[in-house]
Specification:
Layout (H helix, E strand, L loop, with lengths): L4 E12 L2 E7 L11 E8 L2 E8 L9 E6 L5 H9 L5 E4 L15 E6 L3 H14 L4 E7 L8 H10 L4 E7 H4 L4 H8 L6 E5 L2 H11 L9 E4 L22 E8 L2 E9 L4 H7 L17 E6 L2 E3 L7 H5 L2 E3 L3 E3 L3 E5 L2
Parallel strand pairs: 7-8, 7-10, 8-9, 10-11, 12-18
Antiparallel strand pairs: 1-2, 1-6, 2-5, 3-4, 3-6, 12-13, 14-16, 14-18, 15-17
Helix pairs in contact: 5-6
Length: 336
């Protein structure tokens, strides 16, 4: 794969009894946005398996860091925690994902549970160190020993007393957080942009809590990872069949403008753009992760699968490039 990156492991830091952070040095400078993830290639007796791990580092920091928490039956997470050591090399796709913050977002309201703190930590560090905006963080865990980044969060709270508010919620002491608990925390920050990552029931409670406070879909971002059903490290070339209709597709990607007139009707947009040398973002290639989201400005496309986009995003023209095939004679898109 031409865009595969070989990272050198330069440090391994235990965060809790079942979570470790791996600091990775890329062979060349890489740009990414706070909240994005890496798709890691993990060796197994069945060949390479792919897993997505959020970056806990922020773009201004040296190197990139992923934080991995063991799951009881998780082959990849246990392999990472048991076998990866300083000096090893890890293969990964470039950073991707749309659970991201930017300076234009303003003040941010963050909700995390368990290892869901990983991309949230990236966003918090970016906002605090690279902007003058405020951060409010609600972080739920089972007990004090399960708190990932406990020392780092304490240091941030001491350094940014006037701009960072953290509430640690411990199930051992307070039971699971309910929507009412989350709403009480969020109420003073109803004008912030909100982000949440964690188990599905926790994120559902966050949505239930924030909706009455006026948080619309464009002001509440959720990070959802699923187990990839396909392997982006072992993808066969897709060839268009004879007699396929051709569509014109124009647009922009990472600042590059393009205009092609031979997109075959049976070829997914992502596959077509990659074949043309366009550096289009992707990860799973199976419609499950959302890394390849593109906005259709003019024309129409059909998607074979969608496990990511909600009705509001679809109404705004967003589509999954790995699943999109042309449904009109001309299509205009943008990734920017």
């Amino acid at each position: 794969m031409t865009n595969l990156v070989q990272f050198e492991v330069v440090s391994v830091t235990p965060e809790t009894d079942d979570a470790k952070s791996f600091r990775l040095k890329p062979p060349r400078p890489l740009t990414y946005k706070p909240g994005q993830f890496l798709t890691i290639g993990v060796p197994s007796d069945r060949g390479t398996v792919a897993r997505c791990y959020s970056l806990s580092s922020a773009p201004h920091e040296d190197d990139l860091t992923i934080t991995v928490k063991r799951t009881p039956s998780g082959y990849a997470s246990n392999w990472m925690c048991d076998h990866v050591a300083v000096g090893d090399t890890i293969a990964a796709l470039p950073p991707s994902g749309n659970f991201v913050a930017s300076e234009q977002d303003g003040d941010v309201l963050l909700f995390a549970a368990g290892s869901g703190i990983t991309p949230v930590m990236s966003i918090a560090k970016y906002v605090l160190t690279q902007t003058d905006n405020h951060v409010a963080l609600f972080y739920a865990n089972r007990d004090p020993d399960a708190v990932i980044f406990a020392d780092e969060l304490r240091a941030l709270a001491e350094s940014y007393v006037d701009r960072l508010h953290i509430v640690h919620w411990l199930e051992q002491l307070q039971s699971l957080p309910r929507a009412a608990d989350l709403q009480r925390f969020a109420a003073p920050y109803s004008h912030y942009g909100a982000y949440t990552c964690g188990p599905a029931p926790f994120m559902a409670a966050v949505v239930e809590a924030l909706t009455p406070l006026g948080f619309s879909a464009d002001r509440l971002k959720r990070e959802v990872f699923v187990s990839l059903s396909s392997n982006p490290f072992e993808v066969e070339d897709v060839v268009s069949g004879p007699g396929a209709a051709l569509t014109r597709v124009a647009g922009t990607c990472n600042g590059t403008e393009f205009d092609f007139d031979d997109w075959p009707s049976d070829l997914p947009l992502l596959q077509y753009l990659l074949s043309k040398g366009i550096d289009a973002p992707f990860s799973c290639r199976s419609g499950e992760c959302g890394a390849c989201i593109v906005q259709v400005v003019e024309g129409m496309v059909d998607m074979e699968r969608n496990d990511v986009l909600d009705p509001d995003e679809l109404a705004d023209g967003y589509r999954l490039a790995c699943q999109a095939k042309p449904a009109s004679a001309s299509v205009t898109i943008t990734y920017d």
